Amino acid sequence: MRIRYIPFKMATAAVPEFDDLEPMDFQEEMLGSSNSSIADTKFDVTVGYIEEIIMDEEFQDLQNNFLDKYYIEFEDTEENKFVYTDIHKEWVDTIEKYLETNLARKMPGFHMQEFAQALESRKDEVCGEIFDMLVSFTDFLAFKELMLDYRAEKEGRSIDLLEDLVITSMSKPAGGATAAAAAVGGSSRQGTTQPQLAVQPAASGSKLSSKHRVK
Amino acid sequence: MGLLTILKKMKQKEKEVRLLMLGLDNAGKTTILKKFNGEDINTISPTLGFNIKTLEHRGFKLNVWDVGGQKSLRSYWRNYYESTDGLIWVVDSADKRRLDDCKKEMQALLLEERLAGATLLVFANKQDLPGALPAQQIREVLELDGITTHHWLIQGCSAVTGENLLQGMDWIIDDISSRIFTMD
To answer: What are the GO MF terms of this UniProt record (chain B) (predicted)?
Structure first.
């Protein structure tokens, strides 16, 4: 891996608004260095921030909300619907915009175009997990699989919760248990639509986010 | 172009080729794709969306995109032009009535900016059918000889028997690799 990962402290120190980490030393070092190494530092700091943003829980929430919004469109069939392409495009746009907004927040004066140029001039150095991960967001088939996994998990989990419901009601007095069992039986006779709908909102789980974290 | 798209282009694996397969409905695009991939071709129904297959062939990774060809679906084709290295235009050689329509659609694609760098392979499919026009005649009807903007080849084939599918694929890969991979 040729990308130099900036330790968190150093990345923080490079931004003027955080002055708690011996900024003076760091600035002196900066003054003494050439233009190209300033550019290198800026590049490395940006990459460090991208990692931070991607690892942040807020980004996991963003992804989960997105999956939640669209998973129902995805079916486990070989042929793809055209709408998948639109959704995937929106996914890439959403992530790009999120990265850009958050980088600008962390680094005042940040310009994505400038960073993109820096990337292209370092073509051979750009390797490592973080870049692989960013590229993976653009992979359509990987995205489809993510959606299908999410859907399977949601629909699988709702059955688990239904079982929990039965177990809880069994601990009640005999009459209550019968009533609860009857209620569960009744709902399954009508099909599983109702209980599934009832538990789905609670199902956005930590399991999924851990699955999609940087490997 | 956004950050992710730039990264994707930068990190595109060597010897990775994106092929876009288009043509009128019932031309045999999905059948060609499945036959080439060694899959069963007896249960194929009209494509209403798109199929993607990633195939390994001669050390190349082929990403083949097969998009439905019905008239109402053709406006979606544009969503799949980006980054295409090779365009495979599939013709039902036995459907003489629609050859004019076929020519118009194909010629329109050749004007697309995002397909400007793509190699064109025309599969004159269904050569196993008795009424099929030979590739030479399809070549004239489609006015292929007038094309100066793209490298092209027409190949008579049969998706059902598999005849000449390999030859066509080998040619398009050779042409693309000689254009792209020797530049690096």
So the answer is: GTP binding; GTPase activity; metal ion binding
**Summary mean pLDDT of chain B:** 94
- Alpha-carbon distance of B89 to B107, in angstroms, equals 11
| Closest chain B residue to the Cα of A128, Cα to Cα | B11
The answer to whether B128 is a known ligand-binding residue is yes
Does the structural domain A57-155 have CATH classification 3.40.190.10? no
Please answer yes or no on whether B52 and A95 come within 8 Å at the CB atom: no
Q: Which candidate, B99, B105, B15, B22, places its Cα nearest to that of B63?
A: B15
All residues at 6 or more sequence positions from B160 whose CB lies less than 8 Å from its CB, including other chains: B31, B35, B41, B126, B128
Percent of chain B with pLDDT over 90: 88
Cα angle B118, B123, B124; round to 5 = 145
Among A2, A73, A77, A80, most B C-beta atoms within 10 A, so best to mutate, is: A80
What does the alpha-carbon distance between residue B7 and residue A134 come to, in Å, rounded to a whole number?
8
Q: Is A134 helix (H, G, I), strand (E, B) or coil?
A: helix
Distance from CA of B156 to the nearest CA of A (A): 27
Query: What is the C-alpha to C-alpha distance for residues A185 and A176, in angstroms, rounded to an integer?
Result: 14
- CATH number for the segment(s) B16-181: 3.40.50.300
Q: What does the block give as tokens for A6?
A: 């900036």
Report pLDDT digits (tens) over A86-104: 999 999 999 999 999 999 9
